[in-house]
Amino acid sequence: MSKKTEKQVLKFNDVCYFEGYFYFSSNQFNGLFRWKKGDKKPEFLCMFEKELTLQDNMHSHILVHDRKLYFIPFNGSKISVYDVDKKQMNYIEITAHIEQKAKVANAFIIDDKMYLVPTDNIDDFRIVDLKDYSITPWESVIEEVKKLEITYYCDIFESILLNDKILISVFETGTIIEYGIYDDKVNVINYENFKFGSLSSVDNKCYATTLDGKICVLSEDEKISVELDTEEKIRYFFKLCEDKEYIYALPCFGEDIYIKDKKENKWADIKNEMPKECKPDYLGEPMFWGTVESESGVMLFPKSFNRILDVNGKNVLAYEVMLDENMNGAKESIKSCFKKADTCRREIIQEKYYLDLSDFLSIVKE
To answer: Per residue in 139-192, pLDDT tens?
Structure first.
């Protein structure tokens, strides 16, 4: 492109690490990429041909199983399966089994089964058999969740895999649904006076964050202890992740990233340790979504931020990964980010928010 703008910095939802590369789908438009740490530009692999070309936030998570990458749909309509060896994409059709347009909040692969946790529609808990891609209702969980008489619908199900259990929290309540993978038993636990925002599995424990800025640990004997209380400085932490020495708490809103030294058992805010060139694009959504443990610490991939961060305690390195329309195959994908709009009976080009119209014109002029 003719000029370098912050709009051309690639943004991510989830990321997975496989054999030296970070794989991801853009959360801005339809495209599968891979990137090696230190490179300025990623490698464009392909488009998700059975998805809309203009779809943003297409996937919520990426899972690795049997040398295949499973892209779990959020605004997308299918589970996309990328075979790393064959460099081929296949699709699992789920819309016939899901009432709303996909909207899968999280997914877990255990043995040859994939468990789908929806964002909010109770009837959309599903199990996918990866041997034949058949899909069946997750009946034991659906039955118990319906008993809760949930009335609040807005990304309400947070979930983690911990040991041999899947734990599911109901947003803005103190309710945890505990599913035993191998016995198919469901246990519902209620923590009074707590309103959970998110769940994370770190340090082999279940961490829950609350909507008044607390970080709590849920024990196996159904007790809860508060590890950090920001006294509502943070509305709630979107996600916790870890490396060998530290636990990192990422905010849903705002710039404050907290870390916990596992040896000293102390939390600290590292907002002031960020490189000066690092800044959020928009504080109304999480700065980071995808996280991967690296050799040095943990990699944080931006959802609404302008850099990838490589964090080890208070040591922070920043990488800028730029979108380049000259990448093999990417040009058509970028062109597809613009569509014709009928205004006063004349067709004009309508630009997307992350690319300038002048950039588009410089591409099509070639």
So the answer is: 999 999 988 877 655 557 899 999 999 999 988 899 999 999 999 999 999 999
- Asked if 319 and 37 count as a contact pair (C-beta separation under 8 A), the reply is yes
The pLDDT of 341-356, averaged and rounded, is: 42
Strand, helix or coil for residue 318:
strand
Dist CA 305 CA 308 (whole Å): 8
**From residue 7, how far is each of 106, 235, 323, 324, 359 by CA, in Å?**
28, 28, 9, 12, 11
What tokens does 10 get?
């690639």
Measured distance CA(208)–CA(200) in Å, rounded: 7
Give the pair of three-digit tokens for residue 92: 């699992």
Provide the whole-model pTM.
0.86
**Between the CA atoms of 169, 172, 173 and 177, what dihedral angle is there, to the nearest 10 degrees?**
-10
CA–CA distances in Å: residue 54 to residues 12, 26, 111, 325, 337: 15, 11, 34, 16, 5
pLDDT of residue 51 exceeding 80: yes
d(CA 209, CA 215) in angstroms, rounded, equals: 5
Structure token pair of residue 279: 């800044």
| Contact between 200 and 220 (Cβ < 8 Å) | no
Give the pLDDT of residue 348: 42
Alpha carbon distance 41, 3 (integer Å): 15
CB-CB contact of 72 with 63 (8 Å): yes
Distance from the Cα of residue 71 to its chain's centroid: 11
Q: Looking at the predicted structure, is the pLDDT value of residue 91 above 50?
A: yes
Residue 100 structure tokens: 């709303």
Cβ atoms of 334 and 357 within 8 Å: the answer is no
